[in-house]
Amino acid sequence: MKIELKKFGEMLISRPAGREAFLAMSAYLIRDLDKNTKIEINFKGVKVLAPSWADEVITKLAEKFKNIKLLNTDNASVQATLETLRKYSGLKI
Question: Residue 91: which of 55, 49, 65 has the closest Cα?
Answer without folding.
Answer: 55
